[in-house]
Design goal:
Structural class: alpha/beta
Helix content: 40-55%
Order of helices and strands: HEEEHHEHHEHEHEHEHEEH
Bound molecules: ligand C2E, calcium ion
Largest sheet: 8 strands, mixed, barrel
Strand content: 15-25%
Radius of gyration: 20 Å
Oligomer: single chain
Number of strands: 10
Number of helices: 10
Length: about 280
């Protein structure tokens, strides 16, 4: 037994080292990666249930690393948050998404609603509202076209300050959506206090929903609550036709998921938009 335990701990140590090495590599090459243009945004269509039309996209960051290949944001966003690099990176994301909206407009696409994920660190910045206002002006898009996705984590640090910022953003005309609703400690109390436009139901809401009556009732009830509060409801992570049918039966407003499309590069998104919205 002793030998076995010894081996296990050895394996554990070795894999920890690999993880640490990878993290160190990511951390040390991040700044340069931004300068070298290794980050890019992919866009996942947001589809309106009532019409079946694409009305916008969520921007999701990707890092094409020369040695590691495509790195997931789940791997590098936490590092960027820890080092503070998320501030310039977050600004890059906002600016790139806004520029892209303008580019699609130039191509003749209608004005789209693009969502950008925000880190709690970005809200600790006093000038965040000013930064966003400047980016909107520079890109030349209407504030209503930009939707900021936030999670409850932004309230962990100085909730009062955060709430003030959110109200200023609303004043500016930017839309706010609460992301990952239904995970972690998300509670209905957030719905009372934040000036929200959209509630995004996490994929865990619909995982297994097809065979689970209780899950369907929870899903249905949350949508009723959200609608009574005048919120738009988006269901995330819809993958199958069966899931889609249940979701459509409960008056959810919009859907994102592999059933329509995974996140794709901007050029591909424009093609999808044109093909999908043809009739
Ligand atoms: P999220 O904001 O909840 O984004 C949804 C994630 O679900 C995306 O993963 C998306 O590719 C994936 N997804 C979409 N449809 C489906 C589906 O039908 N099935 C499954 N299994 N997955 C689906 P992704 O792109 O890897 O992003 C992961 C997370 O990284 C995001 O979760 C978000 O929290 C964070 N993130 C991504 N881009 C940014 C960014 O620009 N800034 C910040 N701060 N965070 C970002
Ligand atoms: Ca999101
Ligand atoms: Ca989400
Ligand atoms: Ca998330």
């Amino acid at each position: 037994v002793a030998k076995k335990e010894h081996n296990t701990s050895k394996v554990y140590t070795a894999s920890m080292n690999d993880v640490t090495k990878r993290e160190q590599l990511l951390e040390s090459s991040m700044l340069q990666a931004l300068e070298l243009g290794q980050f890019m945004l992919y866009y996942q269509p947001k589809v309106e249930v009532a019409t079946g039309r694409i009305y916008g996209a969520e921007a999701l960051i990707r890092w094409s690393h020369p040695e590691l290949g495509m790195v997931s944001p789940l791997d590098f966003i936490p590092i960027a948050e820890k080092t503070g690099f998320i501030i310039p990176l977050g600004e890059w994301v906002l600016f790139t998404a806004c520029q892209q909206m303008k580019e699609w407009e130039r191509m003749g696409l209608p004005q789209l609603s693009v969502s950008v994920n925000m880190s709690m660190i970005q809200f600790q910045q006093k000038q965040i509202v000013h930064t966003i206002e400047r980016i909107l002006t520079e890109a030349g898009i209407r504030p209503e076209q930009l939707e900021l996705e936030i999670t409850e984590s932004i309230f962990m640090d100085n909730a009062e300050h955060t709430l003030t910022i959110l109200h200023e953003l609303k004043q500016l005309g930017v839309k706010l959506s609460l992301d990952d609703f239904g995970t972690g400690y998300s509670s209905l109390s957030y719905l009372q206090n934040i000036p929200l436009h959209t509630l995004k139901l996490d994929k865990s809401f619909i995982n297994g929903i097809v065979d689970d009556f209780k899950k369907q009732m929870i899903f249905k009830s949350v949508i009723v609550i959200a609608h009574n509060l005048n919120l738009n409801v988006v269901t995330e992570g819809v993958e199958t036709q069966e899931e889609l049918e249940i979701i459509c039966g409960h008056q959810c407003d919009a859907i994102q998921g592999y059933i329509y499309s995974p996140p794709v590069p901007a050029e591909r998104f424009a093609q999808l938009f044109i093909e999908h919205n043809k009739n």
